[in-house]
Each structure stands twice: as structure tokens, then as C-alpha cells.
Amino acid sequence: MAGRGGGAARSRTPAATARGRRQTRASLPLDMLVDIAARTDPATLVRCAATCVDMRRRVKDYTRLGGRLHLRRGDRFVLPLLRGHLIHTYKYGRAQRQDHLSLLDTTAADATTLRRVTGVEGFPLASSNGLVLTRVTRSLRVCDPAAGRRRILPSNKLTFPVDVVGTEQDDAMTSYALLVGDDDDDGATAVGRQFHVVMAYLELSKHCRNVHFQTFSSEHGAWGCCNKIRVPNLQGSKLQLPLGTALVVGDTAHWLCLTNTGDYVLKIHVRMEQVTVMKLPESFPRSWWYHQLLATSSAGGCPIVLTADDDKISAWAQSKQTGQWKRQPQVVIETETILQFLQEAGGSRPPPSRWPVKYELKLLCFAERSGTVLIKVLNNMSPLGYFWLNLQSMKIMRWFSDRGLEYATGNIPYEMNLAAWIPTFSSTL
Q1: By residue range, what is the domain housing residue 249?
Q2: 48 lies in a domain?
Q3: Which residues does UniProt call coiled coil (predicted)?
């Protein structure tokens, strides 16, 4: 009997044996695994959702049906979760200009891929929480590249003091901000979440210093009243540089305002319809050679001003006790450190030369959710590539060679709230 029993056991097929092993393994239901992952951290949740199609579907259903994410260390994305940034390029073909928008995908830690974005037209003006504000001729559009949806905003030229696309001076003094609501906000729009678009115009002359701003609400589907607020403590008669891209923190939008007599940070409280002007210290560098960019040292924190010359990047911060700007900056990173990273990452560092080598650091954009700054480094006007600087660690995280890239005219970050990102796991741009 024992011999026959043993022979019967040995006669089992390989498929039956494998089935038996699977049945003896301890396993948890997928719903329970999702509940556990929702209480870990962003990186773990994304890795969990990336394991298989069934798990990805369960994570989508979890958030779609109102499941709450209780993630640790979720105030900022870890860098591998940063989707990347959008580059606007153009070239001329068949006697006609061809504009393109590409995503520099940085989800992989060891690779950077450039992909063409379809379904988004125009020049990118701002981005927030997965939505992108673009300008197409004389109209503004809010697009969701992941879902391929868009919403065209109505014209406001009858109430705003300048046209959306006016003279070169008007464009220099006009800027835009995009504020996107949280995913648990009530209501939905053609592009998903509720949003606000702020159009700001600085009227600056010897006898007139006013800030005009108007807000489009997706909830009401219309532009609000045009606000005109006098700012007498902003000195100067003309701008040295265009207002540039706004830094959005909560429901406030900040712009760096450099006039011919002083440097300021312009702050608009969107909901309260108020304007605040903060003057930068006299020691702030005013040379046109410096590149400046607004950022935050922590998610939702106070603005800081980054400046870059050919030697280093510095950060000008405010005192926590007084709120006044400090007279001296903190060195964030030196150019030599960036070049060492380039060499160790396999890039081609310029060889030593008997002639002076002049480097230029361009601060292109800041991604508030991940706390990273996109930098472009040039050597004697020749580009060396794009670099991502993490402000908290003050280290370069990765780089991308832009050789062969079409002429780039605009760069904006592209990241999403984790709950908004999960439904797009199986989507491609």
C-alpha cells in the first residue's frame, strides 16, 4: 500500500504539482493589499499599482469610489514619481512654422525619454496638478494631456485693459497663473477638476503703478470682474525683464518683478482679491547676467528667490521671525559640482583649454510638488544639457542631453497629485 501510494504521488503531472504549490502559499485579497498600500508612502503605492493589471484596476477603483489615501511623507513627490516637464519647440518646414509640445519623461530613475504630446495645442503658459494652460493665437485653453481633454476659455478682451496677445510691452507685463482644485472638490469640468485661471497685468509708468487681474472660474464658466489695485510702494517706471511664470502656493500667485529702480515679489491673493508687494534687499544682484526664479524650500512654504551666475546658484530667503528678506543668500550648488555630476553620469565635460571657459546657468522652471528646479547649462553658448536640482537635498538628481533637440522656447513642469495620477497609469501621452 505504501509503495502504491508513493507511486501514485510520483505520477502527478507537473501542472498539478504547480497548482498544489500555489494553493499552499499564503495570499491576501487584492482589496486588502490596496488598503495596506494606501497607508504607506507614494513610492510604495505606485510600485504596488505597477505590479499587474489587476492591481492597477483595484487601485483605480479604490480612488474612484472615494477611498482616502493616508500616505506618509506625501507632502512632496519623491523624484522618481515626477512625470517630467513639457518643452515647447518649433522648426520651419515647407515654408511654415511647425510647433510641437513634448514631454521629457523622468519617471524612470535611469533613463529620460522625450515623447511628443498629442491633443495639446499652443504655447504652454502654466501648469498645475496635471492640467496645462496654453495660448493659441488669441485664445486660452486648459488641457489635460493624460486624458486628451481640453476646455477653451471665453474671451475677456472687453473687460481687461489689454488684449490677450497685444504689443511686445503688453506681453512683457502680462502673465498667467493656473490654480487647480483638489480631487475631492465638488463638481467636475470638461478637464476633470475645478480650476481658476488668473490673468495679471502690471501697469507701470512714472505716474501710474497699478495691478490689474481677472480670474476665470471653471465652476461659473466665466471671467470675474477686472480688479484694479494701486501699488504705490512698487517703485520704477518700467520692467527690466518680463514678469515670467507665476509661482502658485495655495490660493496665492507670486511673480518676480524687476523694475529699473528696485526688485520686488508681487503677490496676488486670488480669493481675497488683494495684492501684496515685498521689496527684495538692496544686496540682491541687479545685473542682467543673473538668472532669477521663484521657488519654495518646502511644499506650500514661503517663496524664495533663486539666482544663478556662471559660478553658482544661490537662494534668497525670508526670516521666519520677521518675514523680511535676508541680506545674504545661501549657496545652493556650485557649477563645478554640476560638471562633476555630468562627468560621473557619462556626459561629456568640456576638456581643459588655455582660453577662458565661461559657463551659464539658466533657471528654467520650478516644480513645487517635487521641489525640483530645471536648469540648463551652457558652455560658451553651447548647451551641455538639462539638469534636475532637488532643493531639499541641494543635489543634482539626473540630466538629459538636449543635443539634436528642436529650438526650445518654453519649459514648464508637469506633475500631478497622486490621487489624480493613478487613473492615468495605463494611459499614454
Answers
A1: 79-424
A2: no
A3: none
Number of domains in the chain: 1
Count CB-CB contacts under 10 A for residue 394: 14
Q: pLDDT tens across 59-80, in order?
A: 777 766 666 777 776 555 554 4
CA distances 138 to 154, 250, 275, Å, are 10, 28, 27
CA 116 to each of CA 104, 130, 166: distance values in angstroms, whole numbers, following the listed order: 9, 16, 29
Bridge partners, residue 399, by sequence: 387
What CATH number does residue 320 fall under? 2.120.10
Please report whether residue 57 resides in a domain.
no
Q: Which three cell numbers stand for residue 384?
A: 551641455
H-helix or E-strand spanning residue 144: strand 139-144
Confirm if 266 and 201 have CB atoms less than 8 A apart.
Answer: no
User: What is the reported pLDDT for 276?
Assistant: 92
Rounded Cα–Cα distance for residues 50 and 72 (Å): 19
Location of C-alpha cell 511647425: 98
Percent of the chain whose predicted confidence (pLDDT) is above 70: 75
Residue 29 lies in a domain: no
- Helix/strand/coil for 287: coil
- Contact predicate 414/424, CB 8 Å: no
Return all residues near 103 (Cβ < 8 A) that are at least 6 apart: 83, 84, 85, 86, 87, 114, 115, 116, 117, 145, 414, 429
| Burial of 173: CB neighbours in 10 Å, binned 0-12, 13-18, 19+ | buried
Instruction: Tell me how far apart the alpha carbons of residues 373 and 127 are, in angstroms, rounded to a whole number.
Output: 15
Placement of cell 539658466 in the chain = 362
pTM for this prediction: 0.77
Render the burial of 6-15: b for 16+ CB within 10 Å, e for the rest. eeeeeeeeee
Non-local CB neighbours of 98 within 8 Å, separated by 6+ positions: 90, 91, 92
pLDDT at 63: 67
Q: Which segments in the chain show pLDDT lower than 70?
A: 1-26, 43, 50, 63-67, 73-83, 93-95, 106-112, 157-159, 161-172, 182-192, 287-289, 352-354, 404, 406, 417-429
Length of the chain: 429
The verdict on residue 121 lying in a domain is: yes
